[in-house]
């Protein structure tokens, strides 16, 4: 397995897609029940293959990832050839994961207590694995509104 298995909730959300996935392998509902009962290791492999397919699709589409912690924010633009990151660091101890802290940051972006850094990083041989690592570390796929806003502000 290249990524991680989808959660039970994710499988429930993708129930129809999983049925279609099984159908592409000519596995009917009754055959699936038999596989789960008689050869659970095969069923596990099918769940893993489906999970990887879903992750590949999601990661191929991902263009922005945000990772926000109490005093830092890392905003990634996942371009074709490189990742562009804008990092925001607060030096005053304000927690930007709270509504109050985030509002303070919004109103005080140019304060001396707010530091901006930018960098570009090339992908490894496996671009989607790099994207997946960002998500595993707490990143969330977004539409990039915050990245675009700060990019215009500081560039």
From TrEMBL:
Alphabetized InterPro entries for the sequence: DUF6495 (IPR045470)
Superkingdom field: Bacteria
Name by which UniProt lists this protein: DUF6495 family protein
Taxonomic lineage of the native organism: Bacteria, Pseudomonadati, Bacteroidota, Flavobacteriia, Flavobacteriales
